[in-house]
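For reproducibility, we list the full input for the nicotinamide-adenine-dinucleotide complex.
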Amino acid sequence: MKKYRIGIVGSGGIARRHIEGYRAIAGDLCEVVAACDINQKTLDNYCETYKLPLRFTSTKELIESGEVDVISLLTPPSVRDDVIFPAIEHGIHILVEKPFADRLSDAVSFVRAAEKAGVVLGVGQQLRYMQDTMAAKEIIESGEIGDVMFVAHDHFQNRTKTGGWRKDEKRLEISIFSIHVLDRIRWLAGRPPEKVSAVTRYWGDDVRGETFTALTIQFTDGVVGTMVSSWHSPTIPECRVRVDGTAGSLLSVKKAITSDDPCILTIHPVGGEARKQEYLRKSATSMAMGENMKCLLESIGTESEFMNSGRDNLQTMAIVDAAYLSASRDGEMVDVDEAWRA
Ligand SMILES: NC(=O)c1ccc[n+]([C@@H]2O[C@H](COP(=O)([O-])OP(=O)(O)OC[C@H]3O[C@@H](n4cnc5c(N)ncnc54)[C@H](O)[C@@H]3O)[C@@H](O)[C@H]2O)c1
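The corresponding predicted structure, in tokenized form, follows.
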């Protein structure tokens, strides 16, 4: 079978994890043949490290070269429309790193263009593919803990140094980091969000954006999600996900959402014994990125919706936009419809 030819756009920090994951997990479906970066030195280092045959310093040249079937867009969030629209016009499928877009309305325009052109567009919210999260989703879908009522997902880290493009982002903690957490809450809740209330704090000295968020989401059917994501937890780093259903609870605890540290998932159905499952995977984030890409490639040419499709991600973007609206009003409850109308 012919392998999909992948072009990496933006060969900075996260691009290393992507290529390693693609090669380990999706190597039978694809080959990374090209990279593109406006920084020649970064590009050369990347292409030499990973032995890539083609390198470009202009996205236009890469897109028009005819050398790639899929683009993995791994640039800062300010670089989205000038790659996504031309790639779609050339029939190139795209995986976009999170955040999908600056605003929900931009994301909507990307999805419409891709659907019109019959191009697969996905978003790199790879943390759904972490083993404990996949297991939690399977347990929920099996009915073992009954109907989901509540999802609490908190993340505590000591992230006091932020450099590069991140320090100038006005939308920082939610848009750049806890969008992963929100995406998982929504996925585990399994319903569309209706209302969001968020409180943010600007506690970082060297950045423009917020660095602390406490947030509540109301989903349909009365399901509630909550999140605290702090970059100011000096010690005891923790990433926890708790789901309470009508017939039991589950709890996943590890040190950080992307870390390789062991993760313990406890499942306790009502009337049954609590059991613990441990997950330990080397290069867990890279492997999840590989799985994310594999799912996207497998959906090309099929009618099946890709799990992290751009269309699916609109609901996560809607939570993000509603959260910023709420935070700008000191935590007032915001109807997600308002984010859709903005
Ligand atoms: N999914 C995750 O777990 C995860 C983790 C970290 C970063 N990210 C996301 O990945 C993206 C990149 O983050 P990063 O940490 O790798 O940043 P980075 O600064 O390390 O790398 C970005 C690269 O993009 C290049 N670039 C900028 N504009 C470009 C353009 N117009 N054309 C081609 N190249 C261009 C830069 O020169 C740089 O090399 C962001 O959207 C970020 O939110 C995701």
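The chain has ten helices and 15 strands. Residues 10 and 74 are 5 Å apart (CA to CA). Both points were considered when choosing residues for closer inspection.
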